[in-house]
Design goal:
It is elongated, with a radius of gyration of 29 Å. Strands 1, 2, 9, 10, 11, 12, 14, 17, 24, 25, 26 and 27 form a twelve-stranded mixed sheet that branches. It has an eight-stranded antiparallel sheet with strand order 36-37-38-39-52-51-45-48, with no helix packed on it. The protein is 2% helix and 43% strand. It is built from three helices and 52 strands. By secondary structure, the chain is mainly beta.
């Protein structure tokens, strides 16, 4: 936005004890070349640290950080704490260390000489006469009525950061200025009209060897920091804050561009386009085949292609994010995939693992919050990064990813946050109120609420056209095996540490089904089939396995359990495989086919770092189970095709095993018999939690069931299995070797859960 200017100009100069030389000539701005080409672009979002401070009382780490490149070489920088709306600090040297794929405690850290840092206090106070700075209180952002990060905007060679300080809007940009070969960092603010003005935190008072103020601003010391008092005004007040080296006198002339001027001439950062050629499946005779939409693995942006989420624009183009923080737009996704063009749309995001297009606008969930990415000038890339909802809390833990992004018919957003799993997978680090929580955010982004709790590492959610939410979750503490959840508001899904209840729960909401490791050792998300172009699965649910790179059809059965409605059932595997860990799936409204993306980062059978693939229905008869029900009469399995009467009615062609798991604070569970009392963990791990012994974990006490009779229905599409002593079990695995009515071999299994036997 363009703001009116107020005169005279207010300028603040802060000296912080770094000796670069003596100034003899007027200061001038450094000539800025084209943006530095780096994988992260001009900025990087993440947990960011600036220097290692000797003073332990100074926390120079921003849990939600934004680091911005400064200077002609791009190796100087300034970083902001987006929760506390403060500058974390600035430095000269290299930009930051890299963020590794899993970020196992190695968050980006500034490299070089520290220019200034601030402590763990609010960067702004909504009153020029503030008597104290607000310290960090736990985790999460400042109160809405005090200060909030609103987003930032690409201004070509600069970044304009936007704050809301009470009722006052503040735009900020930083530059490097030189005076006789001495360089220093300048923050330039445009403070909106206000009655009471604002207080701005500048840096540690102990580092400020000299502070000079001109005009209406006043510099004081407050809570160990130098602060600027910016008085209220009826027009916009421009403020310049210079961090001068020690011994450098005040320049006789000085100028920087104000944010509103910078925003008038934004430049395209990534004009390049990369073309790839897709590969259509060569399989014949299969109902479902996988086409590969080739990724731009070799690209001019040095961007790793660990694809993490996607959605489709109204015109059929795909918008695809990567774990390392990029968002790309892919054009040319048609039947042949002969020419797919890729353009970098956004960069520097903090582990974007969810993406949704709403009314043509791109929304992305990252570890720091829910972003809205806007191309305001039509140049093909996002220039406005809006903090649509930044309520989510963040700690330093490496594992607390924020997964997926879905919307309901009313426009509400949903995403889910993992628990702070310790390195090695057992137990949890320091907890905050948002660990293991499924969130609901209002359509305008102004309100967020907890929808359900108790999730450990739920890499994906799904939502039906009627608003029914589902999720996966992954084996670990309080999660004996991977599970598929049919979620209800206020539900608790197993992890006691992450229940967020005054009294720890002693029971949990049951999943639709559990998964043994060979079926799904690390779950992804879910998607509902809304197209009649995808064979017999319209209006049904599909589940992705990240760990086995596979796709499952879900076979739900609604029953009554404990006097309440409960879903149980199982899954059946599609005969397809993906190149990487399957995480996100959506149907393309243009062709009605299923598209899948995922990455290789933790345990998976993946062969590629990332993939973007299409599951295409060929029209060939799909011979597979489509429904599964456990009743007092037996197990009923429905198929998508007619069955051969002889093989279907032969009880010897069916095999059923049952077993249980143990719900405990241990990591995972052995397989236990359904005929005996559940075993208990017997050892203590390094974290003090109970764990099962190696002997226990190697046990597989499966109960082989006797199938007395198999009866084929009149329409030859359903079989009822009469089973001796059929009973509830956490895990049921039904295998079959049949033929279809047209003579094709039909071999597979249904893996599921039986909570109760229905009437």
């Amino acid at each position: 936005m363009t703001l009116p200017m107020r005169s005279p100009l207010v300028a603040l100069f802060l000296s912080v004890g770094l000796l670069f030389g003596q100034a003899k000539k007027p200061a001038k701005k450094v000539a800025v070349p084209a943006p530095v080409v780096e994988a992260s672009g001009q900025w990087i979002l993440g947990t960011v640290g600036v220097g290692k401070q000797k003073d332990a009382s100074i926390d120079s780490t921003g849990l939600k950080g934004l680091a911005v490149r400064l200077g002609d070489d791009g190796k100087k920088g300034i970083a902001y704490d987006l929760d506390l709306c403060r500058p974390i600090g600035a430095w000269a040297g290299k930009f930051t260390t890299d963020m590794n794929l899993m970020s196992r405690g190695d968050y980006p850290t500034a490299i070089g000489e520290t220019i200034f840092v601030t402590g763990d206090f609010a960067g702004f106070m909504p009153d020029a006469s503030a008597t104290a700075l607000t310290p960090r209180k736990g985790f999460g952002p400042l109160p809405v009525d005090q200060a909030r990060f609103k987003g930032f905007q690409n201004a070509g060679r600069a970044v304009v950061v936007r704050w809301q300080v009470g009722a006052v809007s503040v735009d900020e940009a930083s530059e490097v200025v030189t005076a006789n070969e001495v360089q220093f960092v300048v923050r330039t603010l445009e403070v909106g009209p206000s009655v009471k003005g604002i207080t701005v935190m500048l840096g540690k008072a102990a580092d400020a060897a000299r502070i000079v103020t001109l005009g209406a601003a006043k510099v004081e010391t407050l809570d160990g920091h130098a602060v600027a008092r910016i008085t209220g005004a009826s027009e916009v007040t421009p403020v310049r804050i210079a961090y001068l080296p020690s011994g450098v006198p005040l320049p006789t002339a000085f100028d920087t561009d104000v944010p509103s001027k910078l925003l008038k001439s934004p430049k395209v950062l990534w004009p390049e386009v990369v073309e790839t050629t897709g590969k259509l499946s060569e399989k014949a005779g299969e109902p479902y085949v996988v086409d590969d939409v080739s990724l731009p693995v070799t690209n001019p942006w040095k961007a790793p292609m660990f694809t993490s989420a996607f959605d489709f624009l109204p015109d059929g183009r795909a918008v695809i994010s990567t774990f390392h923080g990029d968002v790309f737009v892919a054009s040319g996704i048609d039947d042949k995939l002969a020419k797919v063009t890729w353009r970098r749309f956004a960069a520097g995001l903090y582990h974007p693992l969810g993406l949704k297009v709403v009314n043509g606008e791109v929304y992305v969930t990252c570890r720091d919050g829910l972003w809205k990415l806007r191309d305001t000038n039509g140049d093909g890339e996002a220039d406005a990064y809006e903090a649509f909802n930044f309520d989510v809390m963040v700690t330093k833990n490496f594992h607390e990813f924020v997964f997926d992004l879905q919307t309901d018919a009313a426009g509400n957003f949903y995403f889910i946050k993992a628990g702070p799993v310790r390195k090695g997978g057992r137990g949890f680090d320091e907890l905050c109120d948002h660990h293991g929580v499924l969130f609901k955010v209002s359509p305008d982004g102004k309100r967020s609420e907890t929808y359900a709790t108790g999730f450990r590492a739920p890499n994906g959610i799904g939502i039906s056209p009627t608003g029914q939410l589902t999720s996966g979750d992954n084996e670990g503490t309080w999660t004996p095996m991977c599970r598929l959840n049919w979620i209800k508001p206020g539900g608790f899904y197993g992890v006691v540490d992450l229940a967020h209840r005054a009294t720890p729960p002693t029971d949990y909401d049951r999943p639709l089904c559990w998964f043994p490791k060979e079926v799904d050792n690390s779950s992804g998300g879910q998607v509902w089939v809304t197209s009649d172009k995808f064979g017999p699965w319209k209006d049904r649910l599909l589940h992705l396995s990240y760990g086995t790179c596979s796709l499952y059809g879900v076979l739900p059965q609604e029953v009554t359990f404990g006097g309440q409605p409960q879903m149980q059932g199982g899954v059946t595997r599609f005969n397809v495989d993906f190149g990487s860990g399957a995480m996100r799936a959506r149907f393309n409204p243009k062709d009605g086919q299923l598209y899948v993306t995922g990455l290789r980062g933790w345990q998976t059978t993946a062969t590629q770092n990332g993939c973007f693939q299409r599951v295409r229905y060929t029209g060939v008869n799909a011979r597979m189970p489509i429904a599964f029900a456990a009743t007092k009469q037996g197990l009923r399995v429905d198929f998508t095709c007619e069955l051969d009467a002889k093989t279907a009615a032969d009880a010897g062609n069916w095999n059923l095993e049952l077993w249980n798991y143990v719900w405990s604070s241990a990591y995972g569970s052995p397989h236990t018999t359904t005929r005996e009392a559940k075993v208990a963990a017997t050892e203590l791990g390094n974290d003090g939690r109970l764990q099962f012994s190696k002997e226990q974990m190697s046990e597989r006490k499966h109960d082989a069931m006797v199938i007395r009779k198999a009866t084929l229905s009149a329409d030859k599409r359903s079989v009822l299995l009469e089973i001796a002593d059929l009973r509830p079990a956490m895990q049921a695995q039904l295998k079959y070797e049949l033929k279809s009515a047209d003579g094709a071999e039909l071999r597979g299994q249904v893996t599921g859960t039986i909570h109760v036997l229905a009437d």
